[in-house]
Write a structure and sequence with these properties.
CATH architecture of the largest domain: 3-Layer(bba) Sandwich
Largest sheet: 7 strands, mixed
Helix content: 25-40%
Number of strands: 43
Low-confidence stretches: none
CATH superfamily of the largest domain: Phenylalanyl-trna Synthetase, Chain B, domain 3
Radius of gyration: 40 Å
Structural class: alpha+beta
Strand content: 25-35%
CATH topology of the largest domain: Phenylalanyl-tRNA Synthetase, Chain B, domain 3
Length: about 800
């Protein structure tokens, strides 16, 4: 927000250096980003161009005769494209210093002597406009110092936070200055002078069909205006405020925008054929041409200002082509309204059309006194700058009036939160200075009615923040920090997540965090069988859907690393995946594990260990044991997806909650990955909703173990895991079962194999005898033979 210092003084009688004011504003929470000083240099005069001739030796230069109030006209060589005879402009005479160190002196330009320089606004420090020399009003006195008309001024650039929409105006900043320095805030609103024989209801009507989107709509009619440039003082303020002057009527609406923060729109009354303003939703898809002559594709929810049934403006954002103010305009209908914030923002973002009006409506404007002051002042300013007659009456459709919010603040709480002792009188004074109506209800209760322009004040803590700003955070004396004892216990779900992360990191996996959004192309490649959750307004096609698996984003990270020669990658991610079902959106917490290259790089005396399905399987099994998740069983997947070359389902406690396998070459080719990749995805949603697994402790063995080896011949379909599970069930003295050999060959016959197991037996109470061990071994052999038909190989 650009605040012109002289404009600020219209509201508050303040006379301090602009740097001190900037420091005070920053201390109050309005961060000043920059200060621009504007001062007309000494030696710059008002001059009039008498005639111009083409330079004899340069196509783009003109030789001008200029009246600067001296005895004889001066010869000036000028390169501005807009120089013309009869033009009133600014002349920097010989000896003038422009900018920091640009001295004007007599010079010969392409053989023609020049006795000064005609200046642009930028060269004079008035604005950044350098398109041509400044075009001054014709009533400026020739020979007069330009500083007579352009007083020294400054512009304070303030970074306004999104919650302080009330400060997007000179008045809003003036309120802060008034409260900060204890100065009265002046009301400079104008009262329009109406013409008695013109009544607005005889010319136009207004109806609101969408009161939830437009709670208030006001209008004024001014007839018989003359469109011309606005006065110099208004143009200067607009230019310093960052808005280009256009004509007197449009400039008034922009002037009110900067002064009150209230967007306005001026319609050419003659273009409103039906003379009936209707505020309504579009109701259907249609194309609407805005002032910039671009066709905008609207949806049914977009809000329009219509002339009967014909769209005339995109509410709160931009007017329509065909109803704008033209040089031929004689009658003006002035609109001043309050539009609901969310709807304006949605339309603005979807169309990619952000304007000064939409920017303010999105942050909230004043639907009460500020709106009325704005339209009344605007009507009178148009009368003063464009002539005409103001019709009697103001249209004011306000079907759902707003009620101000009342909040009770406790001085004791404010003092405790801010860390400084404040009296009820101080708090009363601070809040009253900001425009709140305060009433003392008890020694420790003050009732505050919040003005409607303060959309950011909703709870007691907001009032405490305002008190802190007014007291000055710099004025709060530092104190010794007392010891604070905090409950450092994390929520249960977060503690479980930390436990899972720690367990995975223990196995040499690095955690990555990737985007939860993906593209339709990648989602359909990886999980075509899953219905995705689609975004209504994606930033780009690559983030159009919520991911249905972690595999896509993790493979993308792998490809990124491999392209940069970062090999042997082992990642994990704990994140969310999403699915659209008939009952709604299902959100699951999953763990993705991805390994590639060598799991163990090896050294001078050990060989490298390449990543494989069995390495992945070992990580999952160990992870289950160390994290408390439990033991996993690996079974063939019933419904194999398209990701895997080999896939198994992970079963824990009888429930399938994961998949694992080797990523197919087709998927790897999509990411341009040449190496073998192994991936697993575990659903831990239910685990995060349960209690934290308690560690189980057991006594260290005091007695020796006995080891026995068994080799069973079986069919190829039989899994080692099934036999291992049954061996454990034979006796509680079975401590560990480890497969150590696999054999297939002609001696066994086709479709058969032999697996050797090492079984460790131990009692925690005594040393086992050979007889006891033999009994357990016999039970193992008979159990395996009877249940699986496997034969002991001898």
């Amino acid at each position: 927000m650009r605040v012109v210092y002289s404009w600020l003084k219209d509201f508050v009688d303040i006379d301090i250096p602009v740097n001190e004011l900037a420091d005070a504003l920053t201390s109050a929470g309005l961060e000043v980003a920059s200060i621009e000083q504007y001062r007309i240099p000494d030696g710059v005069k008002v001059a009039r161009v008498l005639n111009t001739e083409k330079h004899p030796n340069a196509d783009r230069l003109s030789v001008c005769k200029v009246d600067a109030g001296e005895q004889d006209p001066l010869t000036i060589v000028c390169g501005a494209p807009n120089v013309r005879a009869g033009m009133t402009t600014a002349l920097a005479s010989i000896g003038t210093v422009l900018g920091e160190n640009f001295h004007i002196k007599k010079s010969k330009i392409r053989g023609v002597e020049s006795f000064g320089m005609l200046c642009s606004e930028e060269e004079l420090g008035l604005s950044n406009n350098h398109d041509g020399i400044i075009d001054l009003p014709s009533d400026f006195k020739v020979g007069e110092a330009l500083s007579t008309y352009y007083k020294d001024d400054a512009v304070i650039e303030i970074e306004i936070t999104p919650d302080r929409g009330d400060c997007l105006s000179v008045l809003g900043v003036a309120r802060e200055v008034s409260a900060r320095f204890g100065l009265p805030l002046k009301n400079i609103a104008k009262i329009p002078v109406e013409t008695k024989d013109l009544r607005i209801e005889d010319f136009i009507s207004v109806s609101i069909e969408a009161p939830d989107r437009c709670p208030r709509y006001c209008g004024r009619l001014i007839k018989g205006v003359q469109i011309k440039p606005s006065p110099n003082w208004m143009q200067r303020r607009l230019t310093l405020g960052g808005i280009r002057p256009i004509n007197n009527v449009v400039d008034v609406t922009n002037y009110i925008l900067l002064q009150y923060g209230q967007p306005m729109h001026a319609f050419d009354y003659a273009s409103l054929k039906q003379k009936k303003i209707v505020v309504k939703k579009a109701g259907e898809k249609l194309t609407f041409n805005t002032l910039d002559d671009i066709g905008r594709e609207l949806i049914p929810e977009d809000l329009l200002i219509c002339d009967g049934d014909q769209p005339a403006a995109l509410a709160g954002i931009m007017g329509g082509a065909g109803s704008e103010i033209l040089d031929s305009t004689t009658d003006v209908f002035l609109e001043c309204a309050f539009f609901e914030q969310t709807g304006i923002r949605k339309t603005s973002k979807r169309l990619g059309l952000s304007t000064d009006s939409s920017y303010r409506f999105e942050r909230g404007v004043d639907p009460d006194k500020g709106l009325i002051d704005a339209i009344e002042t605007a009507a009178q300013l148009i009368l003063e700058t464009a002539g005409g007659q103001i019709a009697v009456g103001r249209i004011d459709e306000y079907p759902r009036p707003f009620s101000p919010r009342t909040i009770v603040i406790r001085p004791s709480k404010a003092s405790k939160v801010l860390g400084v002792a404040l009296s009820s009188e101080q708090i009363f004074s601070f809040l009253s200075s900001l425009g709140l109506e305060c009433t003392t209800q008890s020694p420790d209760q003050i009732s505050c009615v919040v003005p409607l322009f303060r959309h950011d004040i909703t709870i007691e803590e907001d009032l405490i923040e305002e008190i802190g700003r007014m007291y000055g955070y710099d004025n709060i004396a530092p104190s010794e920090i007392a010891p604070v004892y905090l409950n450092t216990s994390l929520p249960l779900a977060e503690r479980i997540r930390d436990k899972l992360r720690t367990a995975l990191a223990f196995f040499g996996l690095r955690e990555i965090v990737t985007n939860s959004m993906t593209s339709e192309k990648l989602r359909s490649l990886l999980t075509p069988q899953i219905s995705p959750v689609k975004l209504l307004n994606p930033l780009n096609p690559e983030m159009a859907q919520m991911r249905t698996t972690l595999a896509g984003s993790m493979l993308g990270v792998l490809a990124y690393n491999l392209n940069r020669k970062n090999l042997n990658n082992h990642f994990f991610e704990l994140g969310k995946i999403f699915e659209q079902t008939e009952s709604g959106v299902v959100e699951r917490q999953v763990i993705g594990i991805l390994i590639e290259g060598n799991y163990w790089a090896g050294s001078w005396n050990t060989a490298a260990l390449p990543c494989s399905y069995y390495v992945l399987k070992g990580i999952i099994e160990s992870f289950g044991a160390h994290s408390g998740v439990g033991q996993f069983t690996f079974k063939p997947a019933a419904d194999s997806s398209l990701i895997w070359e080999k896939e198994v389902a992970l079963v824990s406690n009888g429930v399938i909650n994961g998949i694992a396998g080797k990523v197919s070459e087709r998927i790897c080719d999509h990411f341009d990955i040449k190496s073998s990749v192994y991936y697993a995805e575990l659903d831990v949603t239910s685990l995060l909703q349960s209690s934290l697994p308690q560690p189980k402790y057991r006594q260290l063995p005091r007695f020796p173990a006995l080891e026995r080896d068994f080799c069973f011949v079986m069919t190829d379909e039989l899994k080692a895991s099934e036999i291992i599970s049954e061996i454990y069930n034979v006796s509680p003295l079975v401590e560990e079962v480890t497969p150590f050999d696999l054999y297939r060959g002609e001696k066994l016959g086709e479709g058969r194999k032999s697996i050797a197991f090492s079984v460790k037996l131990r009692s925690l109470e005594k040393t086992l005898t050979d007889k006891e061990a033999e009994g357990i071994c016999s039970a193992i052999v008979s159990t395996v033979q009877s249940k699986f038909g496997a034969q002991l190989r001898t």
